[in-house]
Write a structure and sequence with these properties.
It is a single chain. This protein is α/β, with parallel strands linked by helices. The protein folds into two domains: about 190 residues, Rossmann fold; about 210 residues, Rossmann fold, CATH 3.40.50.300. It has eleven helices and 16 strands. Strands 1-6-2-5-4-3 form a six-stranded parallel β-sheet, with helices on both faces. Helix 7 crosses helix 8 and helix 7 packs parallel to helix 9. The radius of gyration is 22 Å and the shape is globular.
Length: about 450
């Protein structure tokens, strides 16, 4: 689905792309063949259809898990950009894009310490610095604040990088105000060879939100009391936060990239240590850092950072097992969660052999299976299509009906609107109220 304001020429066959400096949207639900098509256009996979396979000029593919697209060879954002620039004559255009992305004050920071959205913006820019003829961006920009994404795409289209043709897969295109010149809806049969097992999707089941999750929890309120936090030798990320988090509800937290949303989540679940202020429950001070994940389970924005086991079943079972669930109760819970998330047939599958969309589902399922009193889902809809997002909304609603407190961090306006919950907007390290529809 493309915004009605976009001037789109749908190209179901022939794979005609937009001109250099313009955007071709590659649309379709999960497992429709979008990723394989984009990889094939970038020369990463063989294309069995009638279209172009390997381009003469440089082609680059940006994967959804953008943290893996940063080289890791350079200690600062500035060095990472210079590493990719090489002899690119458009140096000023690249640094203009960095300013547009709000990264001009992050040039001396290690790229791995940026927020997920900031990393996505950086990866887009450094891959453009390679001056490719084609840039295929696979759901990576879904991590950007909508205003930032629109600003970056607008700047990219009108800057000096007219050599590059852009392929963009993005489940949040309906929320974008940037015109898309061409949209390509690619049937799965165009790129699938039935004789090649490697081209087939894994044997996953259907998402089923009607599955009753066998969870029991004692509702527990959480209070933020003048909570502040800063990383070493940096300005405060969170400033004197005060907030009552009521169990049995969905709390939606939004804010610009780098606003501190994930930092707050990591404080609540115990990944980071609270340095100033307090996290309380029933007027008692909590120290999540002393028992990470015990009260609050956290689904990481990048799922690969979360996995602790080899197979799907083992990972989903690890959380409840660590909480003391054993025997029939453990297997019943795991089986129910796997059934709900369509993962039953993948129970014995190696996690890292699965596509990103499925790994994301496994990571979310593992958090649900913990049965924690509070669950945080950091950008749970990344790479997920409309049907998957509707399923997640139904699962979160079921969790709250069981007394679980749910915190959702998301840049998706449409997903936020589908959730019935309390809304909080984080800006400059503090909560701003009320939530304004004009404030994305």
């Amino acid at each position: 689905m493309i915004t009605s304001s976009s001037n789109v020429d749908f190209v179901p066959k022939g794979m005609a792309l937009a001109s250099a400096g313009e955007i071709t949207a590659v649309i379709g639900p999960n497992f429709s063949g979008r990723s394989r098509f984009m990889k094939s256009m970038a020369g990463l996979e063989h294309h069995h259809g009638d279209g172009r396979t390997i381009r003469d000029e440089l082609a680059v593919y940006i994967r959804p898990d953008v943290d893996l697209s940063i080289s890791g060879l350079r200690p600062s954002v500035r060095d990472e950009v210079s590493y990719h620039l090489g002899g690119n004559p458009h140096r000023e255009s690249i640094f203009k894009l960095l300013r547009s992305a709000g990264l001009e004050n992050r040039l001396d920071q290690n790229p791995t310490t940026l927020s997920g959205g900031e990393q996505a913006a950086l990866v887009l820019i450094i891959k453009l610095a390679l001056n490719p003829g084609l840039l295929a961006v696979d759901c990576a920009l879904e991590q950007l604040h909508p205003e930032l994404k629109d600003r970056l795409l607008t700047e990219v289209k009108r800057c000096d990088l007219i050599r590059t043709t852009f392929l963009l897969a993005d489940n949040r295109l309906p929320e974008s105000r940037v015109p898309i010149e061409t949209a390509l809806e690619l049937p799965d049969s165009t790129i699938t060879n039935p004789e090649n097992q490697h081209d087939r999707s894994p044997p996953f089941g259907h998402l089923d939100s009607s599955v009753v999750l066998p969870l029991r929890t004692e509702p527990t309120a959480i209070e933020l009391d003048d909570l502040s936090f800063s990383y070493a030798r940096s300005k405060p990320v969170l400033k004197n936060l005060n907030l009552q988090l009521t169990p049995g509800k969905i709390h939606m937290i939004r804010g610009r990239n780098g606003a501190g949303k994930s930092t707050l989540a990591k404080l609540l679940c115990g990944v980071l240590r609270c340095k100033s202020g307090a996290i309380k429950s029933n007027d008692r001070k909590l120290v999540p850092y002393s028992a990470p994940g015990r009260l609050v389970a956290y689904h990481f924005q990048f799922p690969d950072s979360q996995f602790v086991a080899r197979t799907v079943g083992e990972d989903v079972a690890s959380g409840p097992a660590a909480r003391g669930l054993l025997g029939v109760a453990l297997s019943s819970r795991v089986d129910a969660v796997l059934a709900a998330f369509g993962l039953e047939t993948l129970k014995e599958s190696e996690i890292f052999e699965l596509p990103y969309v499925i790994r994301k589902r496994v990571a979310i399922a593992a958090i649900v299976a913990t049965g924690a009193k509070w669950m945080i889902f950091d950008e749970p809809t990344l790479g997920q299509d409309e049907g998957s997002c509707s399923f997640l909304a139904a699962v979160f609603s079921q969790l709250t009906s069981l007394g679980v407190g749910v915190i959702v961090i998301s840049h998706s306006r449409l997903f936020a609107d589908s959730l019935n919950g309390e809304r909080h907007y984080l800006e400059d390290g503090a909560f701003k109220e009320p939530w304004s529809e004009g404030r994305l």
